[in-house]
Amino acid sequence: MFGRSKPLELNVVVLRDADVIAHGIRQALADATPEERPGLERAAALVAQAAAGSDAELRARWVHERLAAAGHEGPADSVQAIKTLRESAPGLSLLSAVQLAKDAAATS
Fold first, then answer.
1. Which residues contact 19 (CB under 8 A, 6 or more apart)?
2. 36-39-42 Cα angle (round to 5)
3. Of 3, 86, 88, 105, which shows the fewest CB atoms inside 10 Å?
4. CA distance 34 to 73
């Protein structure tokens, strides 16, 4: 009667802006001098590689970056990691932090 009628959902949104970045690089390539082309072509390849990552890989990278920035060196799904993750992202719920940490540990 007082419990939840449905399970909580993970409320994390993955934002991708690689298409906007790729468009900007393509525009720069169109006007590039011969000296600029190799660097811009390399940048275009790096953007394409980053855009190919899955949402799970992006979330795992986000978790690992937050944990590394906070100095956490243990497993991504440990209690301390979840605490550290929530401290680094104050609006993150416990449920979301646990799920993100489990997913990050699984993709490592």
1. 51
2. 145
3. 3
4. 44
Q: Where are the domains of the chain?
A: 16-52, 54-108
Contact 34, 40 (CB under 8 A): no
- Whole-number Å distance between alpha carbons of 91 and 88: 9
Q: What is the pLDDT of residue 2?
A: 56
The CA–CA distances, whole Å, from 60 to 2, 35, 75 equal 34, 37, 12
Phi, psi (rounded to 5 degrees) for 16: -120, 125
User: 């997913």: which residue's tokens?
Assistant: 103
What pLDDT, on a 0 to 100 scale, did the predictor assign at position 11? Answer: 58
Contact (CB, 8 A) for 56 and 86: no
Tell me if 47 sits within 8 A of 18, measured CB to CB. yes
Residue 88 buriedness (CB in 10 A; 0-12 / 13-18 / 19+): middle
Q: What 8-state DSSP symbol labels residue 78?
A: S
